[in-house]
Design brief:
Helix content is about 40%, strand content about 10%. With about 350 residues, the protein is α/β, with parallel strands linked by helices. Helix 3 packs parallel to helix 4. The model has no long low-confidence stretch (mean pLDDT about 95). The structure holds 5'-deoxyadenosine. The site of 5'-deoxyadenosine (5AD) has 12 residues, from loops.
Length: about 350
């Protein structure tokens, strides 16, 4: 039994599996087995709609950061988002993720544009799950979106170590801080959202202790979902010259997270699929149980460039659903297009 409140112990375990002669396959087997009682061999598919690449934040790693003036900015309106969801629903999806930068145009305390979008989706597709991923907002905004029908919210904590967090994010007047991230995550949980946190692996200045600390934080938070993917440099960011995170370390972190949180929804991330052709299959074999194909309008996909060479065609695109399903069945898993709630959530 690993003590997931002990940073030193977790650090040593990560280092052990990173070194060449460890039995890493036994770690992956333990991780695969940990999910079986709750989700058997199911891999849940969610349709991802990247609703806006405007962002008020300026995270040093991210290609859609505010200071990137080279980027063509776009924002989908309610009807465009509904069209994406309709296309996805026709393909068979019953779970949709609306992700975007922190674009204040949706988040109007009076206008409730986002609340309208959520309730329109829920009205047209009542049984479908809606996940939001649009950053650090006020408790009031989160509550409005929950009341409008959103089921889940993803907000990666990025790093649970203050000093490391500050190396990844500028100190800025809009209040970005690890403390605020944590406040958001605990508020989202208390409002009733299935809540997701997560972090990048191999982000600049990250140590193995930092990664161990991320698991300790997640063990405290007990999120319903955890997104873990490698850092990948983006050419128009201050971190353009840093190397990408490693596939092996990313898989170790997915596996340890699965062992720690056997009931969590863990995506095989696009970032992992972008640096390794079989990255997502490897993540599933290390305990991941979610894949999020892209449903964004084709003309905007290249503009949602969080990092260089991000996948958005081929087997990443939702239109290639049969290819995605085959890749999942080929490794012995079962694609699942239901709403795919966390196993402890009972929906009436
Ligand atoms: N490399 C990998 N992941 C990134 N993200 C943002 N920029 C990068 C990058 N350069 C991740 C962040 C964010 C999520 C939406 O994408 O962790 O939370």
């Amino acid at each position: 039994m690993i003590d997931f409140s002990n940073v030193t112990e977790i650090t040593n375990i990560i280092k052990y599996y990173l070194c060449g002669d460890s039995d890493i396959e036994s770690l992956f087997t333990a991780a695969r087995n940990a999910r079986e009682p709750y989700y058997s061999k199911r891999v849940f598919l969610r349709g991802l709609v990247e609703i806006t690449n405007f962002c008020r934040q300026d995270c040093f790693y991210c290609g859609i950061r505010h200071s990137n003036t080279a980027l063509r900015r776009y924002r989908l309106d309610c009807e465009q988002i509904l069209q994406c969801v309709r296309t996805g629903h026709e393909l068979g999806f019953n779970s949709f993720v609306l992700q975007g930068g922190e674009d204040m145009c949706y988040i109007d305390d009076n206008g409730d544009i986002m609340a309208d979008i959520i309730s329109s989706i829920k009205k047209e597709f009542p049984g479908c799950a809606v996940t939001l991923s649009m950053g650090e907002l006020s408790r009031e905004s989160y509550q409005r979106y929950y009341d409008a029908g959103a089921d889940r919210y993803l907000l990666r904590h990025e790093s649970a170590d203050n000093a490391h967090y500050e190396k990844l994010h500028p100190l800025n007047p809009i209040g970005t801080s690890l403390e605020n991230r944590k406040r958001c995550l605990y508020e989202l949980k208390s409002i009733g959202f299935q809540t997701g946190a997560g972090f990048m692996v191999g982000s600049p200045y990250q140590t193995i202790e930092n990664l161990a600390n991320d698991l300790v934080f997640l063990n405290e938070l007990q999120p319903h979902m955890v997104g873990i993917g490698p850092f990948i440099p983006h050419n128009a960011t201050p971190f353009k010259n840093f190397p990408a995170g490693s596939v092996k370390l990313s898989l170790i972190m997915v596996a340890l997270c699965r062992i720690m949180l056997p009931k969590a929804m863990l995506p095989a991330t696009t970032a992992l699929g972008s640096i390794d052709e079989y990255g997502r299959e490897k993540a599933i074999s290390a305990g991941a149980n979610v894949v999020m194909p892209n449903l964004s309008p084709y003309e905007y996909r290249a503009d949602y460039s969080l990092y260089d060479n991000k996948l958005f065609t081929g087997s990443e695109a939702a239109e290639a659903l049969s290819a995605i399903k085959k890749r999942i069945t080929d490794i012995g898993y079962t694609p699942d297009l239901s709403a795919g709630h966390h196993c402890e959530i009972v929906k009436s």
